[in-house]
């Protein structure tokens, strides 16, 4: 290159391997992302080929010179997709371990270890409880963090799935020589390449020459229709321009020669890949809720810490002892069991959803699906069967629906239909394989499959062997073939294609089983039929034939398809065929359920607007004539504000002929309004929108590897109706998570208040650190997780999507800290005082005794009966009392779990049908017994074997708790006391 510029105005320069201005990695990635979000702006498909050769410095015959190609390669880099700057796995692991609620648990672990260090320095024989607790908290954080790490690490591999679409070698002309095995990564702009059937396009190319060239462009458009490409005039939209073939497209017919106009990251595929790799998914509603809860708990814990510090210092406690108290109160406020409970509940729900044909990759998206307010649905393969089929046949002024039961009998003796069967059988390149599979173009496969039901198209082809053919191209818009009729020894011309092209060539028509002259009025009738079929979303093809005169075209006549020497007009019009990708039968009911749940459904497709509108009407997305159809061209002319206004003004919208960047724009515009957006897609083109959405949903059967890698959820049956199941599960899991969180938080109160009494009233510690740990990560875990198995409430799909209903609300905190938690504390402290009293320490003697109680040098502490207690005897009694307190909390937590089964209904309406929860309650009691009675275990947890009667001390409190909560829910249902309980405690 003679001149080089480092200007960032040049897109090619901006995507060079070497950063021209040495921008920071984050700034460079952000700049590239903003560029990729814009539509492709280029005129390489509009200017003449001569101008294009001059601009690229190439020659259409000789291509580039090897030296120039090498120089361009060194400057612009290889023709590959460059991954965005991702964190290396150690940093990614660190980030995964230190996000969300885990930060609070890490804080608790550090404080525990800090308290242990302080005790070591201040006491000759320190307790190891804080050390154990700190280590367990670290273990909890590491295990939960690994789940997040593996999910994030997988998403960093997105670009690799795009690279799997790229071929290894290409046919390239350099120095006037065609080389067959040039590495695709070595191609540069200006290279001349050749593509044959079965080849994958090695770059974006402008067609120079071609013959019967068709490409499958589904990787960019999502529509798997073979598109003709040739050296013709381009259109304004490059993605629809017939003279451009794109990187990764598959050549399904013919061959072509073209000039490379774009490589690597700036190809249409590269832009999609760049967006998918660089876009950051929106944080899930659940993660936002947990962050909010974490902030509230942090403020609450620190506030209590300040209060305890002030009280301790004012009561004369030493600074080091005060620091240990503060650490203890902060740790006691951290619900250590919440993080593993949420993770376990979501994991179990994900496993349950697999049985319902829904594979969940990102656990938090289960709950997000329940909060979904908008679904942006793809059409092909999601709402429809992704299988073209014949819906209607129109022969002279008669329309037959193939779905009618009498279709076969009414068409059996129709000469037009018989002629149509012959024409459609021979004028086709689709074939039936030995295992009865039909292969070929989607439309031709549908027609051949249809014909196979009413005749034997292969027998017809044997009778009419093909002798010449003009393949379909975008200019002619028809396909013509000539066959030799072995029965009549005459040549037979068959033609199919765009109705307007076929109709203009016809002179006669079959009418009442006779060939008659076609009048202008008859053509008007046919045009009206074409319009009616097209308006219902059907792809319309017309068929015509002509029997050639045997004298003029004798046997062995040489037909020339280049310099045509046979008639192309005065044909006989046979009729029309309407093809459609039929909607799935269950989708209509599914969309009705979704809309009844308050979820809005938008269709976004690359298909024709009329087809999109018709399918939308059939599946229930477009229910009125007010449904707005917005095309890709409309979107290009819309400002961001106008798009937002359109989404706000029109409830029912169908987006047609959209590009990948436009689909992304629609998703982001919906999110800006505060919506939780789910996006469905199956193609490579859907990857950016899937990545950016709150919930990305890919198809498991027809979905590309790229879409599956990018998505959060994979529908293994490709069925929209499965999304309804996901929404119901999402709403159910959120309801059940609220119950689990309430259950976990209630035990926080009897864990916190003993510490306050220990500090403020100077009594022996009622509940130790190790028993707190046993409650949070032991006895509470199974019941908390088992609440996720509770059945959904009856109105779960009749409610609007939650927009302001938090996971932890003020009402829940009122119920936890102001009602049920206090009852649990009362049960625990009652058991504590009873056990103490039975051993001689009446409550009034306990207040102010802590200093002497904990002093190992004091061996004569006197109880209420005048008995003296040594230090070891006192500590053994302390273990008994802590065990009694622990058992009281466990007993009341059993009742609490039963209470938390419902938030509104009475317990007697739901009963004990949740087998997992029933087992969890038994496990909770058994574990409590193990902790108390098994030698070694009770030593580790500082507990002691209890007398049987002490297990029943908490039962009156449990009964009161149950009765109180039933009364509270009754008041909520009846809206009693002016809705006092509704406002205060209905979470």
Highlighted features:
987 residues, alpha+beta, 9-stranded mixed sheet, 8-stranded mixed sheet, 28 strands, disordered N terminus
General description of the model:
Helix content is 48%, strand content 15%. The chain has 987 residues and is α+β, with helices and mostly antiparallel strands. Helix 6 (102-122) runs antiparallel to helix 12.
Summed up, the helix count is: 40
Look at the helices and sheets and give the structural class. alpha+beta
As an assembly, this protein is single chain
- Most strands sheet: 9 strands, mixed
Cα radius of gyration in angstroms = 37 Å
Low-pLDDT parts are 1-9
**Into which percentage range does the β-strand content fall?**
15-25%
Share of residues in helices:
40-55%
> Total strand count, please?
28
- Give the mean pLDDT: 86
Question: How far apart, in Å, are the first and last alpha carbons?
Answer: 69 Å
Please tell me what the overall shape is.
elongated
């Amino acid at each position: 290159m003679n001149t080089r510029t480092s200007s960032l105005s040049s897109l090619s320069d901006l995507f060079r391997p070497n950063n021209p201005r040495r921008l920071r990695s984050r700034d460079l990635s952000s700049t590239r992302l903003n560029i990729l979000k814009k539509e492709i702006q280029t005129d390489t498909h509009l200017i003449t080929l001569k101008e294009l050769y001059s601009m690229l410095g190439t020659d259409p015959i000789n291509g580039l010179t090897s030296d120039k190609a090498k120089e361009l390669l060194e400057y612009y880099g290889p023709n590959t997709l460059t991954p965005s700057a991702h964190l290396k796995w150690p940093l990614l692991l660190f980030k995964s371990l230190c996000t969300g609620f885990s930060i609070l648990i890490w804080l608790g672990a550090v404080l525990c270890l800090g308290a242990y260090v302080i005790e070591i320095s201040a006491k000759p024989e320190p307790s190891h409880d804080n050390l154990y607790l700190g280590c367990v908290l670290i273990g909890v954080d590491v295990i939960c963090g690994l789940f997040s790490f593996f999910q994030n690490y997988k998403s960093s591999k997105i670009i690799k799935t795009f690279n799997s679409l790229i071929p290894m070698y290409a046919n390239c002309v350099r120095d006037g020589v065609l080389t067959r095995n040039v590495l695709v990564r070595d191609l540069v702009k200006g290279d001349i390449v050749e593509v044959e059937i079965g080849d994958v396009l090695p770059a974006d190319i402008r067609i120079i020459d071609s013959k019967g060239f068709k490409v499958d462009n589904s990787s960019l458009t999502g529509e798997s229709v073979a598109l003709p490409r040739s050296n013709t005039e381009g259109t304004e939209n490059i993605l629809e321009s017939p003279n451009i073939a794109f990187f990764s497209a598959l050549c399904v017919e013919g061959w072509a020669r073209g000039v490379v106009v774009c490589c690597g990251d700036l190809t249409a595929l590269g832009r999609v890949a760049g967006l998918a790799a660089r876009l950051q998914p929106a944080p899930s509603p659940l993660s936002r809720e947990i962050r909010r809860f974490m902030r509230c708990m942090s403020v609450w814990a620190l506030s209590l810490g300040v209060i305890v510090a002030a009280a301790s210092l004012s009561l004369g406690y030493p600074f080091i002892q005060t620091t240990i108290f503060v650490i203890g109160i902060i740790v006691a406020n951290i619900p250590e069991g919440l993080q593993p409970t949420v993770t376990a509940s979501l994991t179990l729900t994900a496993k349950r959803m697999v049985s319902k044909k829904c594979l969940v990759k990102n656990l938090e998206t289960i709950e997000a699906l329940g909060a979904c307010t908008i679904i942006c649905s793809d059409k092909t393969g999601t709402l429809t069967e992704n299988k073209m089929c014949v819906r209607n046949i129109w022969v002279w002024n008669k329309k037959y629906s193939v779905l009618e039961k009498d279709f076969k009998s009414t068409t059996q003796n129709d000469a037009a239909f018989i002629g149509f069967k012959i024409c459609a059988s021979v004028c086709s390149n689709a074939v039936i394989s030995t295992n009865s599979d039909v292969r070929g173009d989607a439309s031709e496969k549908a027609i051949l499959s249809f014909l196979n039901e009413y005749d034997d198209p292969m027998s017809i082809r044997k009778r009419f062997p093909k002798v010449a053919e003009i393949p379909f191209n975008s200019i002619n818009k028809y396909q013509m073939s000539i066959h030799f009729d072995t029965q009549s020894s005459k040549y037979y011309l068959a033609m199919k294609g765009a109705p307007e092209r076929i109709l203009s060539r016809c002179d006669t028509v079959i009418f009442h089983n006779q060939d008659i002259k076609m009048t202008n009025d008859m053509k008007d009738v046919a045009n009206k039929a074409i319009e009616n079929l097209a308006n219902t979303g059907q792809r319309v093809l017309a068929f015509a034939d002509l029997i050639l005169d045997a004298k003029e075209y004798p046997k062995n006549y040489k037909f020339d398809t280049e310099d045509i020497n046979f008639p192309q007009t005065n044909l006989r019009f046979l009729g029309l065929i309407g093809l459609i990708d039929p909607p799935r039968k269950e989708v209509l009911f599914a969309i009705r359920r979704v809309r009844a749940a308050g979820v809005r459904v938008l269709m976004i497709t690359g298909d024709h607007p009329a087809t999109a509108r018709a399918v939308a009407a059939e599946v229930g997305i477009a229910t009125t004539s007010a449904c707005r159809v917005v095309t890709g061209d409309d979107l290009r002319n819309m400002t961001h504000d106008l798009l937002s206004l359109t989404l706000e003004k029109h409830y029912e919208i169908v987006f047609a002929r959209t590009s990948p960047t436009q689909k992304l724009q629609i998703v982001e515009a919906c999110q800006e309004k505060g919506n939780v957006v789910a996006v469905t897609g199956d193609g490579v083109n859907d990857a950016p929108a899937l990545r950016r959405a709150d919930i990305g949903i890919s198809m498991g059967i027809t979905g590309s590897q790229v879409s599956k890698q990018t998505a959060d959820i994979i529908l293994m049956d490709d069925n929209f109706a499965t999304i309804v199941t996901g929404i119901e599960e999402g709403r159910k899991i959120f309801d059940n998570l609220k119950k689990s969180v309430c259950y976990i938080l209630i035990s926080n109160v009897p864990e916190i208040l003993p510490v306050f009494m220990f500090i403020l009233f100077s009594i022996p510690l009622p509940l130790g650190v190790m028993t707190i740990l046993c409650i949070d990560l032991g006895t509470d875990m199974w019941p908390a997780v088992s609440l996720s198995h509770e059945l959904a409430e009856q109105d779960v799909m009749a409610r609007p999507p939650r927009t302001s209903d938090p996971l932890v609300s003020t009402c829940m905190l009122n119920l936890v800290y102001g009602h049920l938690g206090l009852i649990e504390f009362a049960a625990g402290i009652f058991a504590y005082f009873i056990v103490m009293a039975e051993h001689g320490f009446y409550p009034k003697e306990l207040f102010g005794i802590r200093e002497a109680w904990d002093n190992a040098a004091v061996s004569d502490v006197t109880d209420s009966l005048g008995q003296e207690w040594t230090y070891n005897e006192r500590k053994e009694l302390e273990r008994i009392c802590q065990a009694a307190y622990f058992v009281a909390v466990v007993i009341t937590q059993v009742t609490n779990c039963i209470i938390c089964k419902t938030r509104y209904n009475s317990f007697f309406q739901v009963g004990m049908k949740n087998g997992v929860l029933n087992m969890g309650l038994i496990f909770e009691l058994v574990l409590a017994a193990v902790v108390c009675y098994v030698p070694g275990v009770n030593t580790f947890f500082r507990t002691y074997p209890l007398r049987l009667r002490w297990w029943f001390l908490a039962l009156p409190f449990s009964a009161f708790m149950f009765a109180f909560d039933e009364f509270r829910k009754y008041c909520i249902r009846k809206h009693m006391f002016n809705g006092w309980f509704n406002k205060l405690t209905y979470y």
